[in-house]
# Entry
Amino acid sequence: MKRIAVLALVLLLAATMVFSVVGCKKEDKNVIRIGLIAPMTGDASTFGTSTKNGFTMAIEEAGTTVAGLTIQLFFADDRNDATEAVNVATKLATQDKVHAIIGSVSSKCSIPVSEVAEANKVVQITPTSTNPKVTLDPERKTFVFRACFIDPFQGTVGAKFALDNLKAKKAAVMFDQGNDYTIGLANFFKEAFVAGGGVIVGWEAYGKDDVDFSAQLTKIAAAKPDVLYLPDYYNKVSLIGQQARQKGIKAPFLGGDGWDSSELDFATMDGGYFTNHYSAGDTRPIVVDWVAKYTAKYDATPDSLATLAYDATKLLLKAIETAGSNDTTAIRDALQGISLDVVSGRVSFDADGNPTKAAVILQIKDGKQVYVATVSP
# Structure
C-alpha cells in the first residue's frame, strides 16, 4: 500500500508539472518579452541613458500591450564591453526567453550580440550600431536589423563634405584600432576621400585606453592637414581635440555620430562637423512633436541616441502588431517588409536589414549643434 501511495503521489506530481508547463506555454502565447541592452555604466554611459530614455518613451506610448500581447521588459547593462554584451545577451535569450532585443549601442557590442540573437532566433534591432558586420558577416543574419545608416554611407558622406564643402585636399585620420566602429568609419572615409581626389597625409591608430596622443598628433601637425577626421565617441574625440589644439593643429575636426553627446567638449570641438541621423531643428511635424514631448519629460533636447532608440522600438512594435503574435519568425518577416514614418525619416529595410534613409551634417558652434545639410543616399 505504501508503494502504491508513493507511486500515486509521483504520478500526481508529474501530472501537476505537465499541467504547469502546458499552462506556462499557454500563458507565453499572450506575452511579448522585449529586452534592452545599453551601456548604462562605463565609458559611454550617456549613450546608454539616452537610449533607455527613447526606448522607455516608445514603450510607454504603446501601453501595457501590443497586438493583444502583454509587454514584459528586461534591461541589461553591457558597460560598452563586448564580453559583457555577450553575457547579458545570452542571459536574455536563454534564461529570460526574450522574443526581441533593442540594442546594443556600439558596434563592438552589437556585433557579438547579433550572433547570440541569430543563433536563438531572437529579433534584434540596434538603434545606433553602424558597422556593416552587425547584420552581414559574411551572410545576412536574418533576425538582425538596425535603425541607423551604416558606416560606408556615413564615411562617404563625411569625405564628400570635406572635399566639396570644406574644400579639403589633405586629410589626417585617427582611429581606435580595437573598435569596429572607428575602424570602419576611418576606412570608408579614407576610401571616399582618396577616390574624390584627396590625399591622406596622416593615418594614426591608438588603443582604447590611451590618453596621451602626443606622438600621433606631432606627426599630424607636421603634415598640416586641411581636416582631421576623428571617428570616435564624444569622450575620446574631446580628449584628442584638446591635445590637437595644444599641438598647434588648426584644421577643422570632422567626425561621425559618436560625437552626439551633451558631454562633448563643445568649446574644444567648436567649428567641427559631424554626420548624424537627425536634427532636432528639423521642422517636420513628427520631429517637432518628438522634441517637445522628450524635452517635457527629460528637460533635455533628444540626441540621436534617444531618437534612434525610440524609432527602433516603434519599428519593432509595429512589426509585432503586424505579425499578431510573439512568433519571432513572423515578427522578423513583418519587420523586413515594413515601411514606416519615424522621427529620423521614413524607414524600409534593404536585403541586409539596413534602413534606406538620409544623413545630416551638424556643426558644433557656440556651444550648440547647428544644422548644415541633409545628404540622401
